[in-house]
Design brief:
Layout lengths: L2 H13 L9 H14 L8 H33 L12 E5 L6 E12 L2 E6 L2 E4 L3 E5 L3
Antiparallel strand pairs: 1-2, 1-5, 2-3, 3-4
Helix pairs in contact: 2-3
Amino acid sequence: MTAINSINSYSAQTTGTQPKKEMGKEQFLKILAVQLQNQDPTKPMEDRDMISQMAQLSVLEQLSNLNQSLSAFLFSNQKNDLSQYSNMLEKKVTWTNPKTNELETGVVSGVKYKDNLVYFQIGDQEIASNAIKSVELNK
């Protein structure tokens, strides 16, 4: 039994399922390490085989990084999608002014995202969305 087959056989026995058809980078690295440990020093792996495997590992790593970046981007867009705040345009809102601690009112003329928070443009002020106390519905 070759080293690769023994890894697959062991994996199938320990999980009680069929071996996976897709290989992750951890499995690839384990197989590569087993191959290197069990190769005959008098017959080393051909250079092109090693280069091919290293290229596959590099591609696998890049795809993994791309997947993580894309997931993070999609999550942040869902969380901070400005289009969900577009219905606030032209609405009269009330907020507490952090400097005077008094309630103020104004009409929302714009929406922007900065510092991981949504801000409403009201006159010449930018009011954080979490400072809004009430919204007057259009009649």
